[in-house]
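Lab manual, section 2.4: Encoding a predicted structure.

Procedure: take the sequence of the chain (88 residues), apply the prediction step described in section 2.3, and record the output as structure tokens. A sample record is shown.
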Amino acid sequence: MDIDNKARVHWACRRGMRELDLSIMPFFEYDYDQLSDEDKKLFIRLLECDDPDLFNWLMNHGEPRDSGLKKMIIMIQQRNKARGPLAM
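Recorded output:
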């Protein structure tokens, strides 16, 4: 997936699991454009992971073995926490 094809990245963010949507969608909407190209590639790699893995990682029930994916999970958690609760 191309990092500049925002419509496709946005589509990939929609997971269909409320907990994932509440974590991934705000990060995409508020933070994606400011990411470096390297971090955008990491984010896209993260979106290619299975939903159960994403859920577990984002809910702190384990972590990815890949250090890049781990970095992205931490970034998503930190930025969402700093933003505070969002009404969706």
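Check your result against the sample. The chain has five helices and no strands.
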